Amino acid sequence: METHYDPTPVKEWAEKNPVSTIPKLFRNAFEKHNAANRNYLGAKVNGVYKFETYQQIRDKVEQFAAALIELGMQPNDRLGQIANNRPEWVITDLGTMHAACIHAPLYPTLATEAIEYILKDCGARVAVCATQKHLESVIASEKELPSLEHIVCMFEPKGESSRKLWSWDQFLKLGADNLAKHKPEIDSRIQNQKSTDVCSLVYTSGTTGEPKGAMLMHGNFASNSQTAVPLLEFTTEDLELSFLPLCHVFERVAYYSVTSMGATIAYAESVDTVAANMKEVRPTVMPSVPRLFEKIYARITDKVNAGTPLKRNIFGWAMSVGEKHFKAKLNGTLNPILKLQYAAAHKLALSKLHTETGGRIRLFCSGGAPLRKDVGQFFLSAGFTLTEGYGLTETSPVISFNPLRRPKNGTVGKIIPDVKVRIAEDGEILCKGPNVMLGYFNKPQATRDAITEDGWFHTGDIGILDEEGYLAITDRKKDLLVMSNGKNVAPQPIEQLIQSSPYIEQCV
User: Fold this and answer.
1) What's the distance, Cα to Cα, between the start and end of the chain in Å?
2) What would the 3-class secondary structure string for 382-409 be?
3) How far apart are the C-alpha atoms of 315 and 309, rounded to whole Å?
């Protein structure tokens, strides 16, 4: 795949870390954490959450890989998937990589034109669809998709296609019937995979122009996810509630991190059911974009404001005590009186917030956009651990995370191990490390514009590193306003202040 960038940081990381590809990461969960009979993926079936074990998913992953090989898929051939979060998404992802092919996930909300563009640009030989509507979009685009040969549907497909149509069960049966024949080939392909092999094309639209497919390598995902495990203290007992689209690289690396520990993932039915699903599955970990935390904050604030004066006063006092308690713990100045006050505040008010989230949450992770400082402080004062991170699709994605024991609200934390950051003269954040993509698929000039010859990636974000090494994002480079005196002014702080009003949804 064409690129000027030599991913030396990925190679150097892999020399120290033998679990340097995603199939090896998945298999390592069985060997290191005895994961075979542990619950892996759960989804709502007939109104009840049903979980499949690691071994059950592994069987289907290998069947999927065998089916691809039976169809003649070669290493580096591409598969496009249009689907919502569900176990089949993961089976497709891991199955594609077990066959040493490249997975190109598409958002299930994309219009037909966007689906056509991405499938054509990546040269997908196989497309996987979650709904009849997705299938119809692919069929409508067939004339523009010369590489496409097969369409796999997670349902019984309806309609006529010039390509071979498979139902999900038919496709897995094809793999099961040929698994014994192709198992040695699967094992060989996994053994021969390198950390610098591209495993996924993740398309990012940016703000202008055509979507660009970020070529993400096995080593990108493997390094990022395994770095996250000790930083976020993942264990085999964790249960993640997943509702961010798996197409979103933030959710993707969370799923790899959980998988690496042999832990469990449950899929929310939809964004609208997250609150109810939290009570049902009682997660311990939940990654999200700021919008969810803002909605929770607004819902609780509205509920409190609608209560009696006494309830409002109790809640206000409890949050005030919670904020003092959080800051005292952070500074090492917690005293017995404040401990007693916090215990009372928790019993009277704060415990109700924890019950609303299922009662077991140990970690909220926020990423994908800046988190409002007042929203972050609200969760910290309520006794939740909320850590904010920073990254981009092209950095697979994490560049920095707030330490769990010493978070600094209003920043995106400290730079993660093995990754380097420097601030350019114009204030832009530059990043170098095993997390940086190989480049943009079929777009060599865009790759040159994004990555320097010596491996520094231009994030397009403006930021500062403080004296303690915490990174703060102040704006997007393209959004800076140039005043008549030549001074650059960042509009983001003003926008965030305006957006803090309960009467304003968005501000640009």
Assistant:
1) 38
2) CCCCEEEEEECHHHCCEEEECCCCCCCC
3) 10
- Amino acid, single-letter form, for residue 375: V
| Angle, in degrees to the nearest 10, between helices 22-33 and 168-192 | 90
Backbone Cα Rg of the chain: 24
Query: Within its chain, how far is the Cα of 388 from the centroid?
Result: 13
C-alpha closest to that of 241 among 51, 24, 398, 403: 51
**What phi and psi, each to the nearest 5 degrees, are found at residue 80?**
-105, 135
Which residues are bridge partners to 150 per DSSP? 126, 164
**pLDDT tens, 418-454?**
999 999 999 999 999 999 999 999 999 999 999 999 9
CA 391 to chain centre: 10
- Given this model, what pLDDT does residue 1 score? 80
pLDDT at 482 over 50: no
3-state SS, residue 354: helix
Residues 254 and 240: beta-carbon distance below 8 Å? yes
Q: What's this model's pTM, rounded to 2 decimal places?
A: 0.93
DSSP 410-442: TS--EEPTT-EEEE-TTSEEEEESTTS-SEETT
Residue 134 makes CB contacts below 8 A (sequence gap 6+) with 82, 83, 108, 115
- Separation between Cα atoms, residue 468 and residue 281, nearest integer Å: 38
State how far the Cα of 288 lies from the Cα of 310, in Å rounded to an integer: 33
How far lies 455's CA from each of 142, 202, 240, in Å? 38, 20, 34
Residue 209: pLDDT band (50, 70, 90) is confident
User: Of all helices (H) and strands (E), which one includes residue 445?
Assistant: helix 444-450
Domains of the chain: 22-193 (3.40.50.12780), 288-359+362-499 (2.30.38.10)
The tokens describing 257, both together, are 């991190």
Residues in the chain: 508
User: What is the average pLDDT score of the chain?
Assistant: 94
Contact between 261 and 234 (Cβ < 8 Å): yes
